[in-house]
Known about the structure:
Two copies of one chain form a homodimer.
Chain A: E1 4-8, E2 15-19, H1 28-32, E3 39-45, H2 46-62, E4 66-72, H3 81-92, E5 103-108, H4 110-122, E6 129-133, H5 136-142, E7 147-152, E8 155-162, E9 167-170, H6 180-197, H7 199-207, H8 209-213, H9 217-237, H10 253-262, H11 270-287, H12 293-305, H13 325-333, E10 345-348, E11 354-357, H14 362-373
Parallel strand pairs in A: 2-9, 3-4, 3-5, 5-6, 6-9
Antiparallel strand pairs in A: 1-2, 7-8, 10-11
Helix pairs in contact in A: 3-4, 5-6, 5-9, 6-7, 6-9, 6-11, 7-12, 10-11, 10-13, 11-12, 11-14
Amino acid sequence: MNATRIPVDIPGRGYEVTIGGGLLGQAGPLLARFAPTGRAVVITDAAVGALYGGKVVAELERAGLRADLLDFPAGEKHKNLATYVSLMGRLLGLAPAIDRSTLIVTLGGGVAGDVGGFVAATALRGLGSVNLPTTLLADVDAAVGGKTGVDAPAGKNLIGAFHQPRAVLIDPAALATLPVAQLVNGLAECVKHAVIADESLLEFIEANAAGLLAADVELCHQLIARNVAIKAGVVAVDERESSGRRELLNFGHTIGHAVETAAGYAGVSHGQAVALGMSAACAIATGRGLLTPAAAARVAAVLAAVKLPARFDDLPGLPAAARDAAVLRELMLHDKKARAGVVRFVLPRGLGSAAVFDDVTGAEIARALEKLAG
Amino acid sequence: MNATRIPVDIPGRGYEVTIGGGLLGQAGPLLARFAPTGRAVVITDAAVGALYGGKVVAELERAGLRADLLDFPAGEKHKNLATYVSLMGRLLGLAPAIDRSTLIVTLGGGVAGDVGGFVAATALRGLGSVNLPTTLLADVDAAVGGKTGVDAPAGKNLIGAFHQPRAVLIDPAALATLPVAQLVNGLAECVKHAVIADESLLEFIEANAAGLLAADVELCHQLIARNVAIKAGVVAVDERESSGRRELLNFGHTIGHAVETAAGYAGVSHGQAVALGMSAACAIATGRGLLTPAAAARVAAVLAAVKLPARFDDLPGLPAAARDAAVLRELMLHDKKARAGVVRFVLPRGLGSAAVFDDVTGAEIARALEKLAG
Lengths: 374, 374
């Protein structure tokens, strides 16, 4: 197997991300390294469990581990405390009982990684975990960096913990079973990484859009490796979002989160919402002279190339509330990343660079939203 | 106010424990330091809330903070995920919404600190917290060191996180409202600290037993300061129980936890169970020549001086299962601190020193339990 290894150099909690086509079918020995007493519990959603659960458990057993599998119903709506409580009850009820050397293996998309990671973070005050992401979004975003948690009625990801995994194993071949809409979802975060940190990645996505949307294993391998390297670099210097560096990953998310929330998470995917948010942020940056109109147009072209929306009208199913400037502004003020009523924006400064701004005015936001509406 | 300040030097997460008679009525300015945007939420149980909740909220408001109070029913049986879910829902439902600069203030005994600390650890992936313990057990043990969490049906403290507070404020005058049985409960942990780390503390407890049991503020102040210093020293070098140093705090707890669990937490307090566990561990240490019979007798005398049991018969209400050697041994094997079926024991090596042993035999445990039964 042609594998790429990328270190995540967080002081005292460093780990390695391994990317390789077919890795899911060869994960046993890699996982066994992190289960010193030979016990592992796989946490996955029912849909991914049906596809890959048996394979991963078999791999663990082939490597000499005792492996249990706990699943929960698929879907973001199950990323909640009820699922957490159910999984925790089943985990702690396993016989023989788990101990502190038991390894948690999260398998699936962002929801499985987030919920499973939160269980790992809080069972016996913290168990080691390895993430096996199976969606592009999870590969390039959720699986690396240690954010775990669940949603609350008041908002997404309001409950959780920072808990770095011991390793992340990514199999680009798993993307072949993914609906194209899910690939598009992940590509939004790739465009985000490109705009804030690596202009050449923007070229790569633009040049290979068709192959990426077809889940070409080699192209996806390269894409994932480049994006994981960017994410790893950011979290290595700012694990807990305290220095501002990690906050750059929020590019497109200020307005994006508001759109998702206003839509009730219907009629718009996370990636689509982030794409709209990135377009709006580029418009604000252009208005401030931080970004040339040509650069903003290039971002728009890449988004279009990977089937992401640039305007509200590109999403016919988007509820009216999610286009309502007053609704969106109110939601932005109450985002958990807002501080004392100040909305924070990540704006590009040229392509491949960005910074956080807390002085974006209501008028600037309104103009940017008008562009999305126009 | 005559205050004592003790640093907890955990790298990157250090904080200070302040001890002072009357501190609860002067806590506002100290708390305000940790609430940069002027927002605090007090988490307490209903019993402590009735005694001190209004005072602490008034103190916060006097210091210019907006303060909410969330309470939950008093008692260890409410230290569970249902209480956690309820508190989290109420916290995230507050209007205006909390943000990452909101301070959590835990007020009460170990349960309030553990549950409130776990809420702080996991709301918005981690809020700052300050602990205001109101029992001797919480003062000298739970409030310092960052262990937070709740119990599960399968056992105590199986769910939780390490989350260091920003500060701990201890008011020895609060002990005046505490039933004597609760003081005794805390004194067990003080004897534990003395045996593993400070022989002169054993002398202090023995010489001042009557005054301590009467909750004399000055004596309790000294007692708390000496014990917090020991606990702080241990957690500073081994925050997450990884080097073995923090595991020394488990002295008396291997058998103690088993006794509590076997009893169904009825007929025996935590401190009483730990006292039995310490007597048993001293017997094992004496059998191994690690402790002289005279030193073991001295520990027994101090336990008796502060009304703690040395034998099962000292606890008439103790259920039969909690005296059953086979039941206790089975529970020890499944303690979360056991590793792959090996029971770990902290044994004193002389007075004021201890070490972890994983080679204590079933026969040694059986002999020690016989001594408790005799």
